[in-house]
Specification:
about 170 residues, 2 domains, four-stranded mixed beta sheet, about 55% helix, binds zinc ion
Length: about 170
Amino acid sequence: MVLHLYYSMKIDDLYALTSLFKKYAQNPQIQQDAELKSPNIIVEPLNPVISKAIKLLQRMDPNYFIGARKIVITMSPNYGFVQSGPGKDPAVININLSRIIAESGGNLGSPEAVLAAATTIAHENGHVRSYNESQGFVGGEGPAEAEEAKVRSWIESNMNRLQDIVHA
Ligand SMILES: [Zn+2]
């Protein structure tokens, strides 16, 4: 019985790995890209609110940023954006942090700013994960909104074990 359970688990792992390999095989650029395979994420420029948001997302899933290249703090008409096309990298998450801070109460150190940054990053990471070289960002806002909702609901049910991050 124990052996059987063990075997089932190994088969599931194998399926997961196989689909992961297939995903990489479809995109030779990704296959050779160490930044995308790394669970760490670069932030430009470094910022304490974004660092806390990253910590929070990695507590939910240590591999949350596999597939993403970096988070760039920038201005935009929205809270964040991704882009593809000539000279653009669809694995870059752009975040309009000043707007997020302003609209979450204007306090750099507030938990609200960290939570708003985390759900914005989650939304944009939903777009990054939906990218496909031949079809672009598949599903439009669908996968981004789904990812944002998933993370928001995880945060709400795990608030008690996120206090050390949001109040740091
Ligand atoms: Zn979006």
